[in-house]
Amino acid sequence: GIQVEQSPPDLILQEGANSTLRCNFSDSVNNLQWFHQNPWGQLINLFYIPSGTKQNGRLSATTVATERYSLLYISSSQTTDSGVYFCAVESQAGTALIFGKGTTLSVSS
Amino acid sequence: EAEVAQSPRYKITEKSQAVAFWCDPISGHATLYWYRQILGQGPELLVQFQDESVVDDSQLPKDRFSAERLKGVDSTLKIQPAELGDSAMYLCASRRQGWTGELFFGEGSRLTVL
């Protein structure tokens, strides 16, 4: 099945810093989503982005489907950005999202 | 804004007891998923429904887990008997139709087996 690798596994930032999270995947995809898991465990949808670029406030994401990777950019990070960020993909042959292991982000004031 | 509803939010049970989780997807969403997330890992698919039919339950431990979606709307995931290794977050997700489009997750049900 499709493999999803996220990097870095952990990221520690000072408030106000920028960061880039990466997601590599091993096959062509129909669906790619980025999630933020809050401290209570809920997965919050950030982006549905099987290809192209999207922006939402301080967050933006780019997926280059032909090269099989996606990037999540966080600018001017805030302490509330802390948590685990997951990339999840659905292969063209699949019917469900396959998750990476996540990037744990810690933002301190 | 419509949400995926799950209950209970938290469940503590003793090993060998039965436990059940309930999920009500966003109205009109035909596809429903149950995922399990062990602490420190990403969610893993347990079972997928399209309307009332099971599409994929290859990762569901069928000796102790069962899932149903009798009328193609809400769904129940049951574990009997619970084992210590079942302690995890159980997440339900839904999407409108078919194999493409955005998935939306509920708040999850956190299970602790003592």
Structure, explained:
The complex is a heterodimer of chains A (109) and B (114). Chain A has strands spanning 4-7, 10-14, 19-25, 29-37, 43-48, 52-56, 59-64, 69-74, 83-91, 98-99, 103-108. Chain A is mainly β. In chain A, 36% of the residues are buried. By secondary structure, chain B is an all-beta fold. Chain B has no helices and eleven strands. Chain B has strands at 5-7, 10-13, 19-24, 31-37, 44-50, 53-56, 65-68, 75-79, 88-95, 104-105, 109-113. In chain B, strands 2, 4, 5, 6, 9, 10 and 11 form a seven-stranded mixed β-sheet that branches. The model of chain B has no long low-confidence stretch (mean pLDDT 94). The chains are: A mainly beta (109), B mainly beta (114). The interface between A and B is medium-sized, with 22 and 24 residues.
N-to-C order of helices and strands of chain B: EEEEEEEEEEE
* SSE ordering of chain A: EEEEEEEEEEE
The overall strand count of chain A is 11
Major beta-sheet overview of chain A: 6 strands, mixed
Structural class of chain B: mainly beta
Shape of chain B: globular
Largest interface summary: A-B, 22 and 24 residues
Low-pLDDT segments, ≥5 res of chain A: none
Care to count the β-strands of chain B? 11
End-to-end Cα distance of chain B: 37 Å
Count the DSSP helices of chain A.
0
The amount of helix of chain B comes to under 10%
Strand content of chain A: over 45%
Question: What can be said about this structure in brief?
Answer:
The complex is a heterodimer of chains A (109) and B (114). Chain A is an all-beta fold and 109 residues long. Chain A is built from no helices and 11 strands.
For this entry, give a set of tags.
heterodimer; A: mainly beta; 5-stranded antiparallel sheet; B: 114 residues; mainly beta; 7-stranded mixed sheet; 4-stranded antiparallel sheet; 11 strands
Topology:
The complex is a heterodimer of chains A (109) and B (114).
Chain A: E1 4-7, E2 10-14, E3 19-25, E4 29-37, E5 43-48, E6 52-56, E7 59-64, E8 69-74, E9 83-91, E10 98-99, E11 103-108
Parallel strand pairs in A: 2-11
Antiparallel strand pairs in A: 1-3, 3-8, 4-5, 4-9, 6-7, 7-8, 9-10, 9-11
Chain B: E1 5-7, E2 10-13, E3 19-24, E4 31-37, E5 44-50, E6 53-56, E7 65-68, E8 75-79, E9 88-95, E10 104-105, E11 109-113
Parallel strand pairs in B: 2-11
Antiparallel strand pairs in B: 1-3, 3-8, 4-5, 4-9, 5-6, 7-8, 9-10, 9-11
